[in-house]
Records
---
Amino acid sequence: MRTKEGNKERDILSAAINRFAEDGYFNAKISQIAEDAGVATGSVYVYYKNKEDLLNKIFINLWSELLEKLTVIRNDLGISPINKMSMTIDSVFSVFSENPSLATVFVNEQNTVSNKENKPFRTYYNRFLDIGESIVKEGINSGDFSDDINLQVFRHFIFGAIRNSLSFWAISHDKISLEIIREQSKFLLFKGIEKHH
Amino acid sequence: MRTKEGNKERDILSAAINRFAEDGYFNAKISQIAEDAGVATGSVYVYYKNKEDLLNKIFINLWSELLEKLTVIRNDLGISPINKMSMTIDSVFSVFSENPSLATVFVNEQNTVSNKENKPFRTYYNRFLDIGESIVKEGINSGDFSDDINLQVFRHFIFGAIRNSLSFWAISHDKISLEIIREQSKFLLFKGIEKHH
Amino acid sequence: MRTKEGNKERDILSAAINRFAEDGYFNAKISQIAEDAGVATGSVYVYYKNKEDLLNKIFINLWSELLEKLTVIRNDLGISPINKMSMTIDSVFSVFSENPSLATVFVNEQNTVSNKENKPFRTYYNRFLDIGESIVKEGINSGDFSDDINLQVFRHFIFGAIRNSLSFWAISHDKISLEIIREQSKFLLFKGIEKHH
Amino acid sequence: MRTKEGNKERDILSAAINRFAEDGYFNAKISQIAEDAGVATGSVYVYYKNKEDLLNKIFINLWSELLEKLTVIRNDLGISPINKMSMTIDSVFSVFSENPSLATVFVNEQNTVSNKENKPFRTYYNRFLDIGESIVKEGINSGDFSDDINLQVFRHFIFGAIRNSLSFWAISHDKISLEIIREQSKFLLFKGIEKHH
DNA sequence: AATGAATGAGGTTTCATTCAT
DNA sequence: CATGAATGAAACCTCATTCAT
């Protein structure tokens, strides 16, 4: 038994992120997460209702944090839509750069568990997407973004693109820097692949 | 010798795709897949080594089919890089439009099971990505595509974008047509979101 | 499909003996026995009722053969009890020397399967033991064998001794000859281990 | 922490011995063993790795106990070889007289499971046999035992004899006393069946 | 709050046996 | 007789969760 000054609740969730990233949600064992966190198996259930609750808390933390950042960006009247979009991407990359395992969990497990829409983090997640959408709308209205954009499709397109780029980085963060991926993502998002003459 | 008219092997794999899409790989039960396929539980094991083998076979079929299509496109000297890219996207969308559940399985389970790189379908998958990359290279050399493109990042960016767009359609194919998603994806890929004056 | 001139029924039983010896009764698979015998799985059930029947037939063959031999020996008035006993042991060793796998099956599986006494080969087996016992009785009466012998115990003692010696040979028949084991067994049986001055 | 008064680990092993004796290793069900032991099925796996581990532990306990006893006997300089041999047999009978089911498991299942030589109890078992052999050697050298004895054959002969005698008693311990079997075994071992004039 | 031994439901997998051809 | 694809019952084992201490 190890005496930790730290916050058990936080330690357990942190261990869960790493285990979920490494082994996948279903293969990860609660007893192993507990051991990694330096607590007894039963202690996991003091702080979390069950295994699924761990996953939900991970995503609630993630999306509520991103929602907060994005809200600040959106509400800043002095920033152009293009810069708002750029800052949004920076925010997302920033969260994951601090925790690569979280990127992997996000990529692999966001659709895991629960009957579809009933996920507790969905509220934060959807609001995040909605605010992102409002920034795109603003850009279309201001003439910065093309008015050929279908908002519904765009949201999934860009989201998948960023998500998968992050996932790549999570696996290879020793081989390629997050900055390169971030800037390349912005480039592709803004300009597309065609050469402009 | 008892022989049934239908193709059991195909029926089982088809049922597996639907169940994996609906319930997720880990929640899906072999007994349920067998029931859906109209065979006895044990019959699954006549055609497939185990549950994981079912998932592997799904992806082997998927990627070998797409690899074949892409190879034909790449080798056609009379097609411009831009059209090759467009046709590649058409191919991917075409495969999934015939089988929406497959799109969901692809999105959620491609990273499931197996110790990372040892997946049997990886050979096909990697060759598919390599050929895709060679088309982009060709476009850069011909001056059609921007030479600011980082090939390594691009492959994950576009792949995640398409994947997530398909996943969105798989859930909502009653609400939005695949054509709209496909064309919007091409638009975003080629032009980006910025308005060109 | 292989055309065999040989007797399928015999081939299957022979394959069963080898598989039971090699893998043990419970680990042996009918499909493997069939393959070894060069027949289809279903053909095993043409000749034998079920897996247990295979084991029973093996022991019925064994004990009916030994019973026959022993009956001839017992009924020969011109042979002394000591020689009858010696010939009995020769008979047992002879059967197994022709089929080492049978020795292993005998050692490991005679008590396998069936609720205790209901085994079909028991009739032959018990009659074999009874005749053996009558030879010992004859030897006691004639003054050749010690009258301190408890017949009931003796039967199990000598039987286990021979059985285990054979089992040893079955595993190591490349290292030690059956003749040495047979003669040593007779020696120990007749003289015991004490030195007689 | 939930702790019950009894010794679950011991109870489970004890129940396993009885079930293995009654039903045979392969027919015995873990759930039944658990029920017999008064614990839940899963509790078996808290103390034992798997079914095979139960069998191995049974034999490890058996042979390590007998090895210890035999070592003491062998090392006692004041005992004659004949008495050492006699005490060895007493030790073996003593162990099984306390646990008739163990005798049955020993007879029927010692060769079960595992690829032949890789059994964990083999170390103890072989050392037990080696010490037994060294006692016989001592007897031959001292002139107490016949120098016609082949040690390799003898060990299997006597072992099978004792084993089978015990097995007989295990089934019929209501009909015949272990003392009679033990003394008769010694008699046959030392003197053989021939009458000495 | 913290523990970890104990639980037991449930799923994957095996394989003896069947039977339509 | 011969076949071997198909069956489905049954059991090992896992592991999330509980709860007495």
---
Amino acid sequence: MGVQERREREREARKSTILDAARELFLEHGFNGTTTKQIAAKCELSEATLFFYFQSKNEIFTSLLFEGIDFWTQGLKKIDAIKMKPRAKLEELWNFYDQIREEHPEYYQLSAFLARPMALSNVSEEMKAEIIRRSGENFQIQADMLDEIVGNSEGRIVADLLWSTYLGLTLLQGSRTNLKTPLHPTKKELKTIFEMLARGLLGDSN
Amino acid sequence: MGVQERREREREARKSTILDAARELFLEHGFNGTTTKQIAAKCELSEATLFFYFQSKNEIFTSLLFEGIDFWTQGLKKIDAIKMKPRAKLEELWNFYDQIREEHPEYYQLSAFLARPMALSNVSEEMKAEIIRRSGENFQIQADMLDEIVGNSEGRIVADLLWSTYLGLTLLQGSRTNLKTPLHPTKKELKTIFEMLARGLLGDSN
Amino acid sequence: MGVQERREREREARKSTILDAARELFLEHGFNGTTTKQIAAKCELSEATLFFYFQSKNEIFTSLLFEGIDFWTQGLKKIDAIKMKPRAKLEELWNFYDQIREEHPEYYQLSAFLARPMALSNVSEEMKAEIIRRSGENFQIQADMLDEIVGNSEGRIVADLLWSTYLGLTLLQGSRTNLKTPLHPTKKELKTIFEMLARGLLGDSN
Amino acid sequence: MGVQERREREREARKSTILDAARELFLEHGFNGTTTKQIAAKCELSEATLFFYFQSKNEIFTSLLFEGIDFWTQGLKKIDAIKMKPRAKLEELWNFYDQIREEHPEYYQLSAFLARPMALSNVSEEMKAEIIRRSGENFQIQADMLDEIVGNSEGRIVADLLWSTYLGLTLLQGSRTNLKTPLHPTKKELKTIFEMLARGLLGDSN
DNA sequence: GATGAATGAGTATTCATTCAT
DNA sequence: GATGAATGAATACTCATTCAT
């Protein structure tokens, strides 16, 4: 059934085209600030075609959400699998955050996005449940990893600290871009912050 | 003229009523997701009446922004004025964050809000400039305070760390509320996080 | 009853103030393009006060209409009363048109206004009837006068020609102002036009 | 591609339907007195559909303006091309006015419309410039034609007289319709008026 | 598969008018 | 008398979605 397979592949390619356009627009203008007309224009299709590939604007949106969550899952699982000393692994995790932020800012923004109170107000209850499940899974991976790193069951707390800090720093930079303030922390300063944090988390000796 | 004064007071009260309704809705659904109809319904006025007190939906929005920024300014200045040992002052600042978050979550959300890339896309250039100015002032107060606390000019970096962490933690909790995950960190865990941070910032001796 | 009389006088004065403001705005922007807010602002009263002196925006409008029609009636009756040779009287009438256009353009515009198909669409049937009655009276005075001037019962036709020409010329100038075309006919050219017309109406000998 | 051509034709037909409805309403109630709802109802389409064919209410309006101006241009050029004796040509022109008024009163009203002070207040500066240009062209054709007819360079003045008279007569009839006065001048009386005018313009001998 | 055409429900804002003081 | 406050109805225009082809 080569024909059917090719059709399937083509269908997925088209969906990708649409998602690429939508992702950019949703990130820049938010859900309500983005129109199907804009999405259609950006991917050079008619508005009607969008609805052939997705049931609704909302489905396009949740597709992007799942895509982002899955991206994180894959990265975290890869790190989890590596064998390393605690301090090194902590640094590895931190660097992973850094890397995603640089190479895939859209997936980074996603995390901040999901944290906003209004984030899921347009999403159906079923979808919401699924998003919750998958996001929780991601957090659990990090918490387990950090349990191991700090050598006790405070992993959950440390995960909170580490993750919040990074999330906060990202937002801070976003805010400074908005507010046209000089961008801080720089790459070097980020390193300093990590050292401070690591000292706090693991003690001076590490 | 008692009459005129009473009128003025009543007018301010009405504006407050509108702002209270609008604040809640904007926080929950964002600017584009909130309609003047919703605001009017929430404060039990007609839509037209909104426009008697504010020139536009945008003016309502920016009024809320300024209100929040000013609230922070006042609190920060109060702390800045207190004479204290570094470690104690650090704790004071941390507690201030905590207190606002508990007593005025709406002003807390504001900070996260301002960080979003699309946050100010509906705001006129003049207003944007003013928001930038006042927000920057708030950050400067914190940076200066922390310079003094850590005893060197790394205040800016420390301010970044402290503030990002707290901002991140807030978002984390928001995210967990959204995602219906059990709420962490708890009050006690927050204390632990602060200890870790303080150790990282000031060294073990403090 | 001096008090009551003074009150009456004051009331009329206020009405005049309002009408002055309204006249200017209606002429410039039309009925639908003029708002009660604008009228109130122009005469430095509150919108509500307008409704103390007039029942509605429509009543303000029809008041202006009657005012204008009456102004014409008075002028025409004055000319009618003068004893003169036909050609001189024709010129007198023409000059009267000219004078009103220069000194009271608002009353001149009125005539053009009344001629427009949509002119009275906002006016109640009773008011419309009254306007029709009084306008017809004005036309009758002119027709009778011209019967006498041309010495036969073709006055009605001549009145039509004379009046249409003048009305048309006024509109022509209005159109040229709108279209920023050089203004023609000039005062001198108007005289030439009158000569042509008079020759046509009365024959070469006059 | 027959399909594409048919689509194009259908699209033009729909635009025409909308313009027909709009023309009637604008003539009767003016720009501000006509709503998109009314237009939509009149041509049995939804309001939204109007905006699929035209960018704005204003674009509908200016489309009508251009349509009318072009109609005049075509007729005038046709007459200009005919070789005739002066008096005959003058009559030809007069009859052309008459014909348009009878067969296309909407294009006749247009001229009166353009003359109103507020006529173009809703039109963009670019459009206004274009309207001015094209209207001026029409007048120039008439002035040149009349220069030739009267045999000297007084064409401009004669054009003013002729055109104003006709414009005025149209308005007069409009006014009488409004005011429910018996309609004058009749067809026969119009002829008499023309004779008077022609005598005035060309002298008794013609 | 893809799209031009069509629309019901909504969007911020304005308007003439009313009413309590 | 005068006005600040309030509003129902309307206004031009937009949006996500549907459907015939």
---
Amino acid sequence: MNTKSRILDSALTLFSEKGYHSVSVAEIADAVGIKAPSLYKHYKSKRDIFNGILSEMQTRYEKQTATLQMNGSNAAVDADIFSSVSEDTLIQMGIGLFTYFLHDDYVCRFRKMLTIEQFHNAELTTLYTKQYTDDPLSYQSRIFSMLGTCGLFRPANADVMALHFYAPLYLLLTLCDREPAREPEALQLLEQHIRQFNQIYKKENAQ
Amino acid sequence: MNTKSRILDSALTLFSEKGYHSVSVAEIADAVGIKAPSLYKHYKSKRDIFNGILSEMQTRYEKQTATLQMNGSNAAVDADIFSSVSEDTLIQMGIGLFTYFLHDDYVCRFRKMLTIEQFHNAELTTLYTKQYTDDPLSYQSRIFSMLGTCGLFRPANADVMALHFYAPLYLLLTLCDREPAREPEALQLLEQHIRQFNQIYKKENAQ
DNA sequence: GTCTATAAGAAGATAGAC
DNA sequence: GTCTATCTTCTTATAGAC
């Protein structure tokens, strides 16, 4: 990895733990293994490093959702996928989303930074809401709406179902961001949650 | 309100929006209407102001939960209260908790500060988890456990029920902290959530 | 592209007058 | 208890040698 990327990476780590203002340029440089003034050959200011992180995250997120949305939004509603939605599939879907959010190094650090800076920076306010509220909810809502149409799930308000499915995942995610040691406990609760969710909403004859 | 309290109040407002490090002592003094050096007659350092906020919040929280827990933990399980749990009561309970968390000026600003500082300060990590994860979940779990024992609700894992009930409330709360303009939308979704929760878990004959 | 030296300013905190 | 003046340290950023 070149120096320019390493600066971005080290800065993100530091910003995500201590917040933008609590991190000095010297600290970033130190983490990279260079002196502070050298850093200005790659970025014209501290804010410029921050913007670099932001724009890289935007790119990554768009790429990631482009892949995800395909499964849920257009005509490619693969009947084979959804008709075979078993309890285990649903659990896998939830755990998969959860562990991706929690363990992807870049996603995780960026989420922490978003969390820390969300009230301070209007752009990050919007971004946080989009990435961790609106997008997951509308994605889940679309899925449950389809599953309802297919007759696999009881007819119910898909938005509320999405909230029921996603909100526990969100709460446990924020818990593990704070206290990583509690991940096993969170995973167990998550699995129980999805199992119970499935029992509640799934039509008996559909199982 | 005396100057010492006004300093605490102004500091909390600023810390909750920008974070501890992004706020200067001069800024706090300015908000109070005095000069920075005058502030040091009331607190010996910037950190001392922060600690003052923390200890006041601890006091308030303990007072608040002492009131709440009484309804849920001991022998004073008032059968009259719980036997009359209707859908409207449940909605009132959820909306009440939600609007208290969201509109109590001190609670709201302190939660924002917790949110911002949660990764930076070990004490606040613990405090956040306690106040917005463990305490509400165990409180709700105890209530649903009782309601199950009473035969009013279907037998189900009370911890998961608590998660189902509280997590959407938590997600919508963090949304409104970021974007207060979305409160009406959040309240509507919250009410739909509780209504559906009630339909799912409540025994038909108990209604 | 990295370094040392350094400027320019902001920040936390103190001294001492009133 | 509040002020002005000041100290010290930290921080962002630039200049210029190598």
